[in-house]
Write a structure and sequence with these properties.
145 residues; mainly alpha; 2 strands; 65% helix
Amino acid sequence: MHPFPRDHFSGLVSVGEHEVSVVLRRIISLLIAFPLGAALVAIAVSNRHPVQLILDPFRPETPALSVQLPFYAYLLGSLVLGVILGGMATWMGQSRWRRTARTQGQRAQRFQAEADRLARERDANISSGVAANASAPKALAIAGR
């Protein structure tokens, strides 16, 4: 709802609720993203020392498979892996709703095609009925006077 009457301020641009919510969502995400990014940079700078990840549970003293990376690489890698796995879980959880939307869309297309076909038939019947009535002699019925 606009705080000013439109008659007095016709030059004002009306802003819908959707646009306001999009702008608020962007502001909130920026207020969260910038501090989070700064914290990640601080963690990366403070954790530059190399750490060995041992992937051999049977001989940790002399591992057959190990990786040595800076500690922040493990932190950021686990963050990226978590985002990817969370996105996949969400996507798989929404598959039911995507299937329902696809089915309903196909159903709506069938109903629209049926409505269009019936409208064409109705228009054809009306135009053929007008042509038949034009060629037939006209009879007037006069109610009892």
